[in-house]
């Protein structure tokens, strides 16, 4: 092992047997041999990495990629199928909330028990116990049985013990997601403090901000291997972009199938409608088709902020030659109304309406999508000049906006930054 390293992981693989219906007794195993059928699931497929002394490393990846399994092997709760793990120094871990606590013992008694598991003797625990209790903020509850503690109180006590055992290596598995905001901030400050003293930290978290504020390096695990590693900001951004890309691909792949299912299940609504669509009107003139199209004129689930889009509608009229008007409303999926207009908006009263044909079509061209990233719903309607509804479908269509910028809020305002503008006066 290299003298500058605290952890060395070489060629580590890990497999599990997943049984379909394993017999729980010897009799069942003899009589029902078929119940021993299983499949082999490889969680890790050859992991190599090193962690230097005093370095903080984060592990990221989607659920099931092997992050927690890797941490459990570092703590020697389980062992690799192949490969080796070498560690230099005392290890303290926070893997599961309250692991090692006895529910009927008080918080104070559990401090003694838990700290002794980490390798401290009674005299060492006595010197630290006041600091542990003070950090946990449990106060008068410290002598109550831990089974009466909330999950937040469990976490406070577990974290307080783990950081006061003078460990050389601290392993943390998402436990910091529990607790109030104030205590989480306190934990982060303490982690930075013990890191500055030279403690090696390996942390698993789905909160990218946590990793960016603590870690020197991040490893991205995927399909049981290290997909990428490097500076936290770079790797977390690549990971988030990849996860967003996959989410969008899944939405698009599911869109057509969802529409088919909806068409079969709800014959009273047109095939293009969303699950939450509601229809009103006398149907004397009614929609037969509608779609959102992107800048290329293609049917789209996603449109890009700053680019054009279209809302296209087709209708059939039982009454030909009737004056009518088309309306659209766009609402964000949290209910915030973003925009509404009609085909006659801006016309003078004496100019009249649009005369219906037996079968017709209308297209609304949005020159620039000035909405920010999110999911939006479109109401479409046909009404007479007195605003009586022929056909009105709430939440008829949906689209999602992609925005590669860093703007925040609801709308994307066209603007220009000018530096040193006063010099131009």
Task: Give average pLDDT, whole number.
Answer: 86
Shape: elongated
Structural class, judged by helices and strands?
Answer: alpha/beta
Order of helices and strands: EHEEHEEHHHEHEHEEHEEEEEEEEEE
Number of strands: 19
Q: What is the helix fraction of residues, given as a range?
A: 25-40%
How large, in whole angstroms, is the Cα Rg? 31 Å
| Residue windows where pLDDT falls under 50 for at least 5 positions | none
* Strand-residue proportion: 25-35%
Number of helices: 8
Q: Could you give the distance between the termini?
A: 67 Å
Sheet with the most strands?
7 strands, mixed
Q: Can you walk me through this structure?
A:
The chain starts with a strand and ends in a 23-residue tail after the last strand. The protein is of the alpha/beta class and 425 residues long. The radius of gyration is 31 Å and the shape is elongated. α3 crosses α5. It has eight helices and 19 strands. A hairpin with a 5-residue loop joins β18 and β19.
Question: What's the topology here?
Answer:
Layout: E1 5-19, H1 26-31, E2 38-52, E3 56-60, H2 67-74, E4 82-87, E5 91-94, H3 107-117, H4 122-136, H5 151-162, E6 169-173, H6 181-196, E7 200-204, H7 208-214, E8 217-222, E9 225-230, H8 232-265, E10 278-280, E11 285-293, E12 302-304, E13 309-317, E14 323-332, E15 337-342, E16 354-355, E17 359-366, E18 374-383, E19 389-402
Helix pairs in contact: 3-4, 3-5, 4-5
């Amino acid at each position: 092992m290299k003298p500058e390293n605290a952890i060395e992981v070489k060629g580590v693989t890990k497999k599990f047997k997943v049984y379909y219906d394993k017999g729980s007794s010897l009799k069942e195993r003899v009589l029902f041999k078929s119940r021993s059928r299983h499949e082999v699931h490889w969680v890790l497929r050859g992991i190599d990495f090193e962690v230097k002394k005093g370095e903080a490393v984060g592990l990221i990846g989607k659920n099931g990629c092997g992050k927690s399994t890797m941490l459990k092997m570092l703590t020697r709760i389980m062992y690799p199928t192949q490969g080796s793990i070498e560690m230099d120094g005392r290890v303290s871990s926070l893997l599961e909330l309250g692991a090692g606590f006895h529910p009927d013992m008080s918080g104070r008694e559990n401090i003694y028990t838990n700290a002794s598991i980490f390798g401290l003797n009674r005299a060492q625990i006595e010197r630290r116990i006041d600091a542990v209790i003070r950090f946990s903020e449990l106060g008068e509850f410290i002598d109550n049985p831990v089974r009466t503690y909330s999950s937040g109180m469990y976490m406070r006590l577990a974290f307080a013990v783990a950081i006061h055992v003078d460990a050389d290596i601290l392993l943390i598995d998402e436990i910091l997601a529990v607790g109030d905001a104030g205590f989480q901030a306190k934990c982060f400050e303490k982690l930075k403090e013990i890191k500055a003293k030279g403690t090696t930290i390996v942390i698993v978290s789905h909160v990218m901000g946590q990793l960016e504020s603590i870690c020197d390096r991040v490893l991205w695990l995927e399909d049981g291997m290290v997909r990428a590693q490097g500076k936290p900001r770079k790797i977390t951004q690549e990971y988030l972009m990849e996860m967003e890309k996959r989410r969008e691909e899944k939405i698009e792949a599911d869109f057509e199938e969802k529409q088919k299912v909806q068409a079969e299940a709800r014959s009273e609504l047109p095939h293009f409608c969303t699950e939450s669509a509601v229809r009103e009107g006398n149907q004397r003139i009614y929609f037969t088709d509608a779609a959102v199209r992107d800048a290329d004129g293609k049917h789209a689930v996603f449109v890009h902020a700053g680019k054009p889009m279209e809302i296209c509608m087709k209708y059939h009229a039982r009454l030909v030659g009737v004056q009518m008007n088309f309306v659209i409303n766009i609402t964000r999926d949290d209910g915030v109304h973003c925009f509404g207009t009609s085909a006659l908006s801006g016309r003078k009263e004496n100019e009249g309406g649009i005369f219906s044909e037996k079968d017709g079509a209308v297209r609304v061209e949005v020159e620039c999508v000035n909405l920010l990233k999110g999911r939006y719903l479109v109401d479409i309607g046909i009404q007479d000049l007195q605003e009586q509804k022929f056909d009105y479908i709430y939440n008829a269509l949906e689209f999602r906006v992609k925005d590669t910028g860093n703007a925040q809020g609801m709308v994307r305002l066209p603007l220009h930054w000018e530096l040193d503008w006063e010099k131009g006066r």
